[in-house]
């Protein structure tokens, strides 16, 4: 199961209702993984309000180095130090080593834990795997912004679930060989080679894409192919405004979701100029892509076997 909490959903300048960009993805399996995507000003306070411990953060992924997407790192790193964090913290980003070094050189900033900066490629049109865990992988792909920027893809690994009915039909019994067949894709049982597809069903893993700041571009469409959830930049309502910036508009984001066969679309990074037009914008979005919503601070989305649901 995955829970995604939107801590900030505004672009540029915050309002009383909307904070700078930050998203927490919590993945629940044999243990909980807490991943932070972008870290705008005030992120640690937003986490406290949302009931998410900043001490649980495993890794941080910054899409680009505009202040509204990273300024919250400075106080967050300090707070983790004061709270006696000891385990290593990894920060992934384009030019990560350059900018993390600068952040750590500000003021008196001694840390009792290791901060490892990991550079992410920001040129080209291909996805690259940047992290692999036992049950999921994370990819990055360059996007079209005014500075080096990337989108991130969280992909839960596909899983084979043993079908007891199929076992019975083949006259096979459960045993240690089932672990081997999951690892290698086949096993020799009673002198016969048994392939995993003969006795198991493949469950596709959950896929979540976060665009960060970007103009409409082909790389997002590629990364979002058949995604369960696409979180896309929708800074502007009017298309002509988005053409002049490194951002997207509502309709173009919906078109990308449709082309990529996305199941659910969340539009975020909304300009403050539309604070009084959110319902109108969402109505237009749904006309172009039915399964879409405008994000709001502290919105929580749950994705599991039952599907996608807004729970808060």
Strand content: 25-35%
Any idea what the shape is?
A: globular
CATH topology name of the largest domain, in short, is Metallo-beta-lactamase, Chain A
CATH class of the largest domain: Alpha Beta
Largest sheet: 8 strands, mixed
Helix content: 25-40%
Placed side by side, the strands forming the largest sheet appear as 6-5-4-3-2-1-18-19
Give the helix/strand class: alpha/beta
Task: Report on the architecture of this protein.
This protein has 312 residues and is α/β, with parallel strands linked by helices. It folds into two domains: 2-158 and 204-310, Metallo-beta-lactamase, Chain A (4-Layer Sandwich); 161-200, no CATH class. It contains eleven helices and 19 strands. The strands form four sheets. Strands 6-5-4-3-2-1-18-19 form an eight-stranded mixed beta sheet. Strands 7-8-9-14-15-16-17 form a seven-stranded mixed beta sheet. The longest helix has 11 residues, at 278-288. The chain starts with a strand and ends with a strand. The model has no long low-confidence stretch (mean pLDDT 93).
């Amino acid at each position: 199961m995955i829970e995604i909490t939107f801590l900030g959903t505004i672009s540029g300048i915050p309002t009383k209702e909307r904070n700078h960009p930050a998203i927490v993805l919590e993945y629940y399996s044999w243990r909980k993984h807490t991943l932070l995507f972008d870290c705008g000003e005030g992120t640690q306070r937003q986490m406290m309000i949302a009931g998410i411990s900043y001490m649980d953060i495993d890794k941080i992924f910054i899409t680009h180095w505009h202040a509204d997407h990273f300024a919250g790192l400075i106080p967050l790193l300090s707070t983790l130090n004061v709270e006696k964090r000891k385990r290593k913290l990894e920060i992934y980003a384009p030019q990560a080593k350059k900018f993390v070094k600068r952040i750590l050189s500000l003021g008196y900033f001694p840390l009792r834990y290791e901060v490892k900066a990991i550079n992410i490629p920001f040129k080209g049109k291909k996805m690259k795997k940047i992290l692999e865990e036992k049950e999921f992988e994370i990819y990055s792909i360059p996007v079209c912004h005014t500075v080096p920027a990337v989108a991130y893809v969280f992909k839960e690994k596909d899983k084979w679930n043993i079908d007891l009915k199929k076992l019975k039909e083949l006259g096979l019994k459960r045993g240690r060989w089932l672990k081997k067949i999951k690892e290698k894709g086949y096993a020799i049982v009673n002198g016969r080679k048994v392939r995993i597809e003969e006795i198991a069903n493949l469950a596709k893993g959950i896929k979540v894409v976060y665009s960060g700041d970007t103009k409409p571009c082909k790389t997002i469409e590629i990364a979002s192919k058949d995604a369960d959830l696409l979180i896309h930049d929708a800074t502007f309502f009017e298309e002509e405004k988005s053409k002049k910036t490194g951002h997207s508009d509502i309709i173009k984001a919906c078109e990308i979701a449709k082309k990529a066969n996305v199941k659910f679309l969340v539009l975020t990074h909304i300009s403050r100029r539309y604070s009084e037009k959110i319902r109108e914008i969402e109505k237009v979005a749904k006309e172009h892509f039915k399964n879409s919503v405008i994000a709001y601070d502290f919105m929580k989305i749950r994705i599991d076997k039952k599907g996608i649901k807004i729970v808060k």
